[in-house]
Structures are given as structure tokens and as C-alpha cells.
Design a protein that fits this description.
- The protein has 84 residues and is α+β, with helices and mostly antiparallel strands.
- The chain has two domains: 35 residues; 49 residues, no CATH class.
- The protein has two helices and three strands, in the order H-E-H-E-E.
- A three-stranded antiparallel β-sheet has the order 1-2-3.
- A hairpin with a 2-residue loop joins strand 2 and strand 3.
- The longest helix has 27 residues.
Length: 84
């Protein structure tokens, strides 16, 4: 039994709306409406391990001894998502 034609269109519309809802931030980015934003909110001095946990301090010192140089903290957003 085939569903009525309007039911097929309703299902297609619902699926399309669901896909758009999930992909909304990236869709706006592609259209150029919502710009990708990023920046720096801290420098190397903000990574100082003195006020951090013991695990952080150990990892920090291990990396420094391996030759890494801390550059700071970075953030970026695409729509509603935030990455650091």
C-alpha cells in the first residue's frame, strides 16, 4: 500500500527540517551569514602551572623539558559551538 502523496511530502519536509536544524551553524557559515570567529584570550603567562592541579603541573613540566614552548590559549566558535 502506497502512502498518500501529501504524506511523502510531509516526511521529506520533516527530514529536511531535521537535517537543517543539526547542520544550522555550518550552513550559515557556508552562506557567509555567520562568520567563523576566533581569538586569543591568554598568553604563555596564563599557562603558568603554579595555580593549576598537580597533574597539570607534571604535564606542563614534562612538555617544557621536551622542548615545547607555550604559545597561549586560543578559542574559536562556529555558530553555537565553542572550541578551545
Amino acid at each position: 500500500m502506497n502512502p498518500p502523496e501529501y504524506a511523502t511530502y510531509a516526511i521529506a519536509l520533516a527530514v529536511s527540517a531535521g537535517v537543517m536544524w543539526v547542520c544550522y551553524p555550518h550552513f550559515l557559515l557556508v552562506l557567509g551569514i555567520n562568520q567563523y570567529r576566533n581569538g586569543v584570550f591568554g598568553g604563555p603567562e596564563d599557562l603558568d602551572p603554579d595555580d593549576k592541579s598537580e597533574r597539570y603541573q607534571d604535564s606542563y613540566h614534562d612538555l617544557i623539558q621536551s622542548g615545547f614552548e607555550p604559545l597561549g590559549l586560543h578559542w574559536s566558535t562556529i555558530g553555537r559551538t565553542i572550541s578551545t
